[in-house]
Task: inverse folding
């Protein structure tokens, strides 16, 4: 039987803290559509995590969170700048354009998932013309698709020229907990000019939920109507919010993320194949040919070949030292 321990952090179960909070939220009756006490408490905890006064909403998936966020920052004839391997560009089936009624994505280069600041210059300087979607926003990801983490200074270098032109900024934080566990200062986000932040829940060890944090109050206006139209304003909203209570009340979010990062570093240190990107969060990306990947699959370990041709190993809150030992033995055997 195939094992998916390292296929993705999405394959891990939900944490006990998150599930206990869901069970606790199941007691009694509550008002609907996110107006309940559980949602209010969860939103307060997210605000405390970021030390920010912002609106917070909870949705079912990262794709929905990202796509709705971008649709709030762009008009249909405008475009979003993003790394060419960002999730919004490669893995969301055109959802930003669908929710944004035609908004475009302008891919940018950069090593190991980080946008090269020089890549911003040409699209930001491009004149508005009728036959091209003009830039209206920037989408960033931390931790990146390759497990690297932006520093606050690196993000500031990217957001500053965008905000100087009055454009919007979206931060995809599907693995924000892992970035924070690697040293990224979450309280700095509010000062970077980010208009909408997605705080990832699912990859962090929660049942399906993501927190959409709206720093810009103008964007927050009528945002619930936008969510409702998109099918992302569930009547029993407390069950989307509750996992954040379990993960934030006693620091479980960052505790589990530190463990996932540590497991990735342990795996990287024992990896017999060349590691292609810095191991800064919970992912390890290696050079491996098809024959050896097939041999690993034959041993029962399922992992993916990633966008740049590397093979990706993802660790999670539930990754055990024993599992790292087992896959390390399998890797040594096929190397």
Result:
């Amino acid at each position: 039987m195939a094992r998916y321990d390292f296929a993705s952090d999405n394959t891990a179960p939900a944490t006990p803290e998150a599930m206990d909070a869901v069970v606790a939220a199941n007691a009694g009756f509550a008002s609907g559509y996110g107006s309940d006490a559980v949602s209010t408490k969860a939103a307060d905890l997210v605000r405390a995590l970021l030390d920010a006064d912002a609106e917070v909403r909870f949705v079912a998936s990262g794709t929905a969170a990202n796509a709705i966020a971008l649709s709030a920052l762009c008009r249909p004839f405008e475009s979003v700048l993003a790394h060419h391997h960002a999730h919004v560009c490669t893995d969301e089936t055109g959802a930003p354009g669908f929710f944004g009624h035609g908004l475009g994505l302008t891919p940018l280069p950069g090593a190991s998932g980080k946008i090269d600041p020089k890549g911003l210059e040409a699209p930001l300087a491009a004149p508005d013309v009728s036959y091209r979607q003009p830039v209206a926003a920037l989408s960033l990801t931390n931790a990146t698709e390759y497990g690297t983490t932006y520093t606050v200074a690196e993000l500031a270098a990217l957001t500053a020229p965008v905000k100087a032109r009055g454009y919007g900024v979206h931060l995809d934080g599907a693995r924000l907990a892992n970035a924070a566990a690697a040293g990224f200062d979450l309280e700095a986000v509010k000062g970077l000019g980010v208009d909408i932040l997605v705080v990832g829940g699912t990859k962090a060890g929660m049942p399906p939920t993501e927190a959409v944090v709206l720093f810009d109050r103008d964007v927050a206006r009528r945002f619930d109507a936008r969510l409702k139209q998109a099918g992302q304003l569930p009547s029993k909203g407390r069950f989307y919010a509750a996992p954040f209570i379990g993960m934030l009340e006693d620091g479980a979010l960052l505790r589990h993320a530190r463990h996932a990062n540590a497991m990735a570093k342990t795996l990287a240190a024992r990896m017999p194949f060349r590691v292609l990107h810095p191991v800064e969060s919970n992912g390890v990306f290696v050079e491996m040919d098809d024959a050896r990947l097939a041999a690993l699959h034959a041993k029962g370990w399922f992992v993916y070949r990633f966008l740049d041709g590397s093979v990706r190993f993802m660790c999670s809150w539930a990754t055990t030292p024993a599992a790292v030992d087992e896959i390390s033995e399998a890797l040594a055997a096929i190397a």
Notes: Strands lie at 55-59, 79-83, 104-108, 135-141, 168-173, 196-200, 210-214, 283-286, 304-305, 311-314. The CA atoms of residues 267 and 324 lie 6 Å apart. Residues 252-334 form a domain with the Aspartate Aminotransferase, domain 1 fold (CATH 3.90.1150.10). The mean pLDDT is 97.
